[in-house]
Amino acid sequence: MGTLRERIMLLILVSANFYRSFARDIITPTQSLADGEKLVSAGGSFTLGYFSPRKTANRYVGIWYNKITEQTVVWVANREKPITSNTTSLIINSQGTLSITDQNSTVIWSMNSTTVKNPIAQLLDSGNFVVKDANSKSADSFSWQSFDYPTDSLLPGMKLGWNLQAHVSHNLTSWKSDSDPSPGPFSLAIDIRGGRELTQFDGSDQSWRSGLWNGIEFNGIPDLKTYGDFILTFVNSTDEVYASYRMANPSTIVRIIMNYTGRTERYIWIDSSNAWNLIWSTPDSRCDPYNSCGSYAICHSNSLPVCQCLPGFEPKFPDDWAKRDTSGGCIRKTDLDCANGADGFMKVSNVLLPDSLVAKIYAGMSLGECRANCLRNCSCAGYANSDVRNGGSGCVMWVSELNDIVQLGDTGQDLYYRLAAADIAAVPSTDKSHNKSKATIAIIVSLVLGALMLACISCCVWRKKEKWRRENLKEESIEDEDIELPLYGLDIVISATDNFSTENKLGEGGFGPVYKGKLRDGQDIAVKTLSKTSNQGIDEFKNEVLLIAKLQHRNLVRLLACCTQREERMLIYEYMPNKSLDALLFDKAKSINLDWRTRFHIIIGIARGLLYLHQDSRFRIIHRDLKASNVLLDSEMNPKISDFGLARIFGDDEAATRTRRVVGTYGYMSPEYAMDGIFSVKSDVFSYGVLALEIISGQRNKGVFLSEPHANLLGKAWNMWNEGKGMELIDPSIGSDFSYDEVRKCIKVGLLCVQENPEDRPTMSSVVLMLRDERDASFCEPQQPGFTGRRDLCHPSSTNGDSTSINDISLSIQLGR
Q: Which residues contact 152 (CB under 8 A, 6 or more apart)?
């Protein structure tokens, strides 16, 4: 009998433990949640329970991802009142009030809701913790929800903004530190005082803003979307103003966080690497801090100097500007004459529109009506479209100083700012919009006549000064086809490089020698000089300036300035402390610094840079010389594609073209380009595939004329893949610390990119998606690579069967190490 009683008691204990471990998603008035217990949403996406941040024994009730091994907390209930004992419970009473109480029924935290008859608290699969009527049939009828009280994280479906009827804001507020979830100094909110902008605050001080919503995106952060499956929405009604997002693929795990470091960041979870991947953040450039250049100035993150006055303006405090203190901003060169209708407007394109705190928005106006209203209002400093869809509509007018204007490269909007007629006449621009009244014409004619008289009187003096200026040029801005790039005098470059000393020589590029330098403000630079014996000449020099000056991407090298004084031709770039990829990759002693995580990061970064060139930039650009020596590495091993001297711009409707002058490097050239002179975006894809296989293997791909079929890297990789020995391709210096799935995926992507037929190769957008996808089941199987036996290299033929000859070939041969 005793034995039977013991068995019954054991069964009861086992049943109780099983019940306690069974995942539930609700709390009822009769069933609370104690420390050690947890709720799991119905789909298994989120967990609600008790946790302690690292370095502290304090306990908090929070929500985190259930299927992710790294505990990532996205909401905290009692962030201001930590629990110091383990005898607390999360309860809901019969009126629907949520609270955390201790063993003495002392309330540590509580949240009131509207009264419901049969209240329950439920954790939804969206990560939302809600209070509702248990009998309610409505899927979104809640008396309280955690989504209305965000902490530092914004999940898909959450609203960041304002409930105007209740006068309640839904903001993100950072943790105080990585171990203290109490509210920190940084917050992200929708600022509704003027226009409607995402704004980041440090305490009460504005530290960053997104720009106005223009119907498609926030004007200043077009890269927030990054990928097509990120769907951003913005609602601006009389009841509420908010921004929200969702993922086209609900299985993609994404979060936006207001970090305790003061940065707003967006992460995506990568299953294959079991880690969060940062895909967007701000502030991220020198122009992101709010109004860093002051009023009536424009910030250029990729130029020197960074801050420049708008045309028609000059520094308010020139001495401070000379010391790089631009906070005082700029003032007009000529006072406005609004009373006589003599003012006009200048257009500046592709900018983050000014701070909308002093802006008025009129959705029903056309741009012409907006201009007319601004012209009549003497307080109006500028105007723009409020909606860029369908060619533009709506009106934004700024009725005070213009602050925080940023040049955004090939994105952004057009801003029309008010300027005196005299200054409009003095500014060389095709984008003038001014009042053509008789008074204006009279002023302009008078100014022109006066200028002619002065020119006649001072012609000789001017010539002498001009000659002196050419010989002693310090630093100024040049314009060429809408490009503004600082022009350095030769003396600046000589001083920076210590007269081109051999100690500062970094190497030899396609143009000529490359030197390290340091400007007077301490910035390190790389100076690329055009050698008189270089295979590349003035055309390539100009081509590189024209192209890269218009490109802005984190995986493209940044051109700072150029020098064209006398017969010198030099390009000044940001300095890359880790130099070129080939210097590390093909050196046995140095390649040990390239572990698999770094190599995978480089492979993805190069793919993103090429995707920008092919699809996302202002132009459709074919690089034509992508190779390991043209990939530079910054201090954090981020790859930067460089050397655009051979690049070509393609039209939107242009698929491929043929050239009689084949340029580039054998070993990286696609078969159709090397043999027939035909190049397209798929030529760059081929080069990328070669480069990816080199990064994996640590081996150079030999020039095709120097190797037997199947003896070069492509043939070796192809044979290993077909024999099921693909993993033997890995560079031994990587060691054993790598992801099998990632390596296999990268080899497969590399082989897909080097297929013989250009039509079989993926686009770079497909490559980026494949590299992000932890699965490769959807990948098609690669076909035989080019230069491995299908084509007769001694008797090349064109794609249409007719013979062709390449009369002008400029290339270099890659030898094995």
A: 172, 173, 174, 175, 181, 257, 258, 259, 260
